[in-house]
Amino acid sequence: MPVERYRMQSRPLGICLIIDCIGNVADGLRDTFSSLGFEVQCFLCLPVKDMIQVLHQVASSPRHQGRDSFVCVLVSRGDPHRVFGVGPAHLGLPLEQVRTMFTGDACPSLIGKPKLFFIQSYMVSETEPGTSSFLEVDGPASTSVASVEPQPLPHTLHREADVLWSQCMAHACLLEQPGASPSLYLQGLSQQLLQDRKHPLLDLHVELNRRVYDWNSMVPAQQRYSLSLQHTLRKVLILSST
């Protein structure tokens, strides 16, 4: 039986929103997703209120209508469930809130299209990476940032279908080391996407898992990364139109 694939033919493939509140990965990610055919919108070092404004503007953009996908990359200090931007921890933005802004009822122009989230969180609380549960992609929705009540979907496709949620956690102490390099997770993601763009994205994530855990086996606990993938994809996703 032929394997059904998501359509990835539009030019550009979709919007890739990058919010880098650390300031050391944006250039590489911009180049990667631009080369894949995305319209990249990049923002650096935002407080939470500005992050919410940018996310809301992108979620409500009419340009999703003619595009085949959407990508969101968030890089920030935080905890397992929030990102802090450049502000204090008590003003953190819940990751669940980010996700629900792009579900089918909140963003109808992305219904049936893959919505990809790549989150690098640097832990600044006492929570150890990997000790808390991650967000469930198919769990109950939280309140959307938008003030308008979401409208019910006009068909039976689940409101949270077609989402890939990849989250990596690491200690914030990695950012304080002399000559600190960009996230191993995001570096590996960029390399995988550039080298093997014609392979299914889920296969690329398996290789990314291998890279991360090979690294973890060689370094002290505070230099390790904890990586989790949740998804509700219904088809094979290849980030290449050829």
TrEMBL record:
It comes from the Eukaryota. Belongs to the peptidase C14A family. One of its GO terms (biological process) is regulation of programmed cell death. Residues 26-121 form the Caspase family p20 domain. GO terms for cellular component: cytoplasm. InterPro entries: Caspase-like_dom_sf (IPR029030), Pept_C14_caspase (IPR011600), Pept_C14_p20 (IPR001309), Pept_C14A (IPR015917). SUPFAM superfamilies: Caspase-like (SSF52129). This is CASP8 and FADD-like apoptosis regulator isoform X2. GO terms for molecular function: cysteine-type endopeptidase activity.
